[in-house]
Amino acid sequence: MYEAKKTLTDLGLEYIKFHACPNYCVLYRGPILESSSECPKCHLSRWKVGKDGQVRVNVPAKVMWYFPIIPIFKRMFKSSSTAELMSWHANNRNKDGKMRHPSDSPSWRNVDCPQEPGNDIDVYLQPLIDDLKKLWEEGEPNVYDAHIKSFFTLKAILMWTINDFPGYGNLSGCVNKGYRACPVCGDQTVAKYLSRSRKMSYQGHCRYLDLYHPYRRQRTAFNGEQEFGCAPEPLSGEEVLGQQQQLRFSFGKGGSQERWSLHGKNTPEVGEKRTYLPPAPYTLSRKEKKTILASLYDMKLPYGHASNIRNCVSMIYMKLYGLKSHDCHILLQQLLPVCIRSVLPKNVRVSIIRLCFFFNSLCNKVVDVSKLNKLQADVILTLCELEKIFPPSFFDVMIHLMVHLVRELRLCGPVFYRWMFPFERFNKILKSYVRNRFYPEGSIAEGYLKEESIEFCSEFYTGSSRTAGLPKDEEKISGPIGSVTMKSVAEKERDEAHLSVLRNNSEVEPYVM
Questions:
Q1: Which of 204, 318, 357, 410 gives 190 a disulfide partner, CB atoms 3.0 to 4.6 angstroms apart?
Q2: Are strands 192-194 and 63-66 parallel, antiparallel or unpaired?
Q3: What residues contact 498, with CB distance under 8 A and at least 6 apart?
Q4: Distance of alpha carbon 71 from alpha carbon 153, whole angstroms
Q5: What is the DSSP string of 226-279?
Q6: Which residue, 399, 402, 392, 380, is CA-closest to 200?
Q7: 238: phi > 0 → left, psi -120 to 50 → alpha, else beta; which?
């Protein structure tokens, strides 16, 4: 086992364990903290305390498992096929003015900017930030590219992160709730607190329209006031950096309310015996629900396009259930416009269909930059139409953020490169690596390392020269290591496997006669 782990370390397949404060104050790394036995901030013991109250020396209370990124990047260039893909954007990309890859975006072209975000993100990201700073300022010299068969200095930069909106607030330290929830509008966010529903409402999308648009003068259809304001200008990178440098914080734990009315969207009606509130225009009757669900129940989609929608439809309870996040996207972009063709009033139906078409255009794999201005105008008009129909409680911050999606598309390129779907699916794979529920982090780290080892070694596997210990079917090389039956290997077979890896390693070639 020791020899196997030593071999994996030489190939760049390793992890580093850092002891951490249980209150998330510090990582015990560096010349000062590495030898400390208690947290310098909260003075909590570095070691685990047993049920009897005794401190168990050399048994850490919390451990962070870190996979260094520099050996991972170097390992990518050791395979000729992977190294070729790493430089595809520079050599084989179609440059016709349309965005197919993040390298077509303005953010990629400005990658030589002399500024950097700094390391004030989170205590657990400090090792990653140190590696990124090294790759940006100095680079990693003598990295071998197996495709062009030469050495070069590896440099890297962090352009963006992929996370949901709550995770964005935790990672960046930016406010994402309350009166300044929008990270683009900032202090100019139009927000109201709805005391009856106890939530924030974000409207005022008429200010994004043209100055002489007729919607700006309509009072009854919106909030009872004419709109004379202008859309806020997003902060530049220098302004954001200046605000970030003024923050003062440390790691570790440690007005009047107003309600918007419905503005005549749904006024009470007086009957013969009682006064009642009629159904809202967006409310579905039982017959309309049955029509939509029957349409979904009879739909047949291509294999692998989405889940079997029929299994997610309940005609008895008149609802949808069991939808995955990808199914919700397919439903919104492609299926919903078909289902609601014969239901709802025309203005409601058209507004919802316009919203579906917007997301369908936003998620295209090829983006025509010349059409983005029209796409931005369409989504603003759609949001204003929705303000006429739905109550203020409908407009949470996620609805408001749609007005900034086209700007993000223009800056960062196609959306599918920044989706969370692959990472959400990968979480399921990581959970399958857990064998010891008392130490799930260690099980995940060891399982991931074994999987990476198999994937890396399989890059040198060819049909003519089969590596010892690997199956004959190439399609079955990858997969969770937990599904494989463990088998002890004889010493001779182990030496043959080790020799095969060395012979297929370009760095060892000069030493082999």
A1: 204
A2: unpaired
A3: 7
A4: 13
A5: -----PPPPPPHHHHHHHHHT----SS----------TTSS--EE-SS-EE-PP
A6: 392
A7: alpha
pLDDT at 121 exceeding the cut of 50:
no
Q: Are 418 and 107 in contact (CB under 8 A)?
A: no
Per the confidence metrics, is the pTM higher than 0.90? no
Q: How many CB atoms lie within 10 A of CB 389?
A: 19
Mean pLDDT for 37-58 is 86
Q: Where residue 115 falls among pLDDT bands split at 50, 70, 90? A: very low
Least confident of 27-36, 120-129, 243-252, 354-363: 243-252
Write out pLDDT tens, residues 443-474: 898 888 888 888 887 777 654 445 455 555 55
Mean pLDDT of the chain: 81
Q: Which residues pair with 49 in a beta bridge?
A: 55
How far are the Cα atoms of 28, 40, 46, 123, 471 from residue 35, in angstroms, in the given order?
A: 8, 12, 10, 18, 47
- Alpha helix (H) residue ranges in 331-420: 336-339, 346-362, 372-389, 397-400, 405-412
**Structural Rg of the chain based on CA atoms:** 28
Contact 493, 467 (CB under 8 A): no
- pLDDT, one tens digit per residue, over 217-237 is 888 888 888 888 888 888 887
Query: What is d(CA 297, CA 339) in angstroms, rounded to the nearest whole number?
Result: 10
Task: Work out the end-to-end distance of the chain between its first and last CA atoms, rounded to an integer number of angstroms.
Answer: 30
Name the DSSP class of 306: S
Out of 207-216, 258-267, 308-317, pick the least confident: 258-267
How far is 336 from 310, CA to CA, in rounded Å?
14
User: In Å, how far are 286, 343, 384, 385, 425 from 321, measured between CA atoms?
Assistant: 17, 21, 30, 29, 19
The length of the chain in residues reads: 513
Which 3 state secondary structure label does DSSP give 59? Answer: strand
Q: Give the distance, in angstroms, between the CA of residue 104 and the centroid of all CA atoms in the same chain.
A: 20
Average the pLDDT over each of 5-9, 94-98, 212-216, 308-312 and give the range with the smallest value: 5-9
**Distance between CA atoms of residues 232 and 223, nearest Å:** 19
pLDDT of 114 above 90: no
